[in-house]
Fold this sequence. Notes:
By secondary structure, the chain is of the alpha/beta class. It has helices at residues 3-15, 37-56, 59-75, 77-88, 92-112, 149-162, 177-189, 202-210, 222-232, 257-266, 283-298, 312-324, 360-363, 379-386, 402-411; strands at 20-21, 28-29, 122-125, 128-136, 139-143, 166-170, 195-197, 215-219, 237-240, 245-249, 276-281, 301-302, 329-332, 334-335, 350-353, 370-375, 391-392, 394-398, 416-419, 434-435, 438-439, 452-460.
Amino acid sequence: MSTSSHTRQADSARDARSALTDPRTGRLREGFPISREQDVAARVEASRAAQRGWAALTPAVRSRRLLRLADRIEDRRSEYALAERAGTGKPLAEAEAEIVGAADVVRFYAGAARTEAVPAAGRRMDDRESWVRWEPLGVVAAIVPWNYPLMMAAWRFGPALAVGNSVLLKPAETTPDTALLLAADAAELLGEHVLSTLTGDRETGRLLVESPVDAVAFTGSTAGGLDVARRAGLRPVSLELGGNCPVLVMPDAPAHTYASLAAASTYNAGQSCAAPARVITLPENYARTVEGLSAAMSSLTAGIDFGPLNNPDQAARYDRLLGASAAGIRACGAVKPGAGEEDGYWRPAAVLADLPDDDPAVREEVFGPVLTVQQARDTEHAVRLANGLPQALAGSVWSTDTGTALELAAALDCGEAWVNCHLDQTPELPHGGRRGSGHGTDLSTLALGEYQRPKCVTVRLN
């Protein structure tokens, strides 16, 4: 092949743009550049140069700049919300609430930038004085999913920037809109390339992980996390992966249980890693739970109460798993898209019951507005069912007996457990998975440890 042919291919690769659709309508919308090797290499180099200056700032200065960024995001929340909606299809009010929530995460880490949590310093050996320096890792590649584009980005870049790293943000191919707005605001308020955005597809993400970044923060599927861990090698990796979260509904569950679970399982069209998915009951309340959840879920309408699935692959996954399910009981809500939205990726809220424990809809995460209901023999069996799948991200317990509820919450093998609520989160409290749901911590000051490393310094006094 001639040199000119190679050049044309390289130019074509650089000029390639993603083919995106509007989830609400199914129609094509404007694509974004797909970054390849040269683009990735150049951006990593720019991030590394920017990181040195960012890390040299005092925590107080970094904090002030992050506060300005949080204010900017909140001040432009209408623009950010429209950009978020373009790629996700979320209801506008829901998108705007998430923009405000993302700004709150950034504001929290602006404060956390000025905190310290280190081992005790001082005289630990004769004639020696020691202390611990916490140093940033360097350039952090943050690869975030399409379900909460700006919020998941904030969970990653907030603590990473607070402790002095630069961040190269790779949004999902279908939802780069808010990440590009963010990059422009960050360049103005934080400095060029301190927080930058690299658009592209899965291959772009692979190239970024294999580039000379110092750490990788990935939020996505378990399969994607395993691939990231393999490619990253010995570099630090933080993984927040799939959920398929269990829900233990006891016979004395509070009256609001069914409505609360229906609301949580349809929030963001059920596309939340920590969403309730697998409801587990005892024999004495199985029929009552199926009836209550069926009524609550059937009362919710896709297109009015919640938005569409994100993309054709997600819609196909929903259809495949519900089609393969052996559920003897199915209860579904309605679908009422707006004018011109008939071809969007709308799917109804659904309850599947009277199904085997190895049913595809139980074992695989639907990642949609679906609840399965299983009947355990007793409480011990209920816990075994809850902990019986590879994922271990989150779960909830529903009971008015505080002692029983706390015992069951402790028995759940997961990183976050709720009692009589689900999906309630705040930046002050940690979130993270175990086993097939990954490792590492998002949110709270504990997340700062994901993005820095200790150096012990010991001085001989005499």
